[in-house]
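Service request form, structural biology core

Requester: graduate student, group of Dr. S.
Request type: structure prediction, single chain
Budget code: on file
Notes: please return the result as structure tokens.

Sequence provided:
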Amino acid sequence: MSAGVEGAIGSLYPFLDTRPTDVDAVLAAVARSTAEKAAEIVALRDSLVAEHGQRLVDCAGRCADAFRAGGTLFALGNGGSSTDAQDLAQLFLHPPTAARPLPAISLTHDVALITALSNDVGFEVVFARQVAAFGRAGDIVVGLSTSGGSTNVLRAFEEAARRGMLTIGIAGYDGGRMAESEFVDHLFVVPSPSVHRVQEAQTTVYHVLWELTQQALADDR
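Core staff response, request fulfilled:
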């Protein structure tokens, strides 16, 4: 292995570096990096309270109204956001506490359907087609995208809006194309240039939305 390649691997994965290594220095650097990242996400989450607090309350109220009327929540996203969409749907449908289960479906889990639509029509319609097939007026669509620019998520919002569904966008950076869309009723942007921090904070956003929705529904009792 050349010295250049070895050095590149060593800089990314110190434990694979065959050159002499100062273990204490590596561990100290890892500890500093971990502390810095932890402090960054805590500060980012704190900033979201002032930015989105009341708007999350308002959005949760509309979600509660939709569930009271028999609505279903549909969650969607790509890549890491697809796993967040699955987590979001699971949170509403099968909450970790004695909270009320609410009808929720992730549109990212059916691999056969997604690959069929991608192959036969185009990847940009994999969510919009499902919204058209399953969605009804009064349902909820939650779309996650770190960039805010995922075409298939935006197409799903457009289809949902056309059908009279409540649309909720969760994006990162500056909101991207979601921030420009007329089809997103509620938009929550995590303003960070780091995709890792964005996705960590987005998880917080939808957990808070779930809790506030549960509180709004509990007020009925």
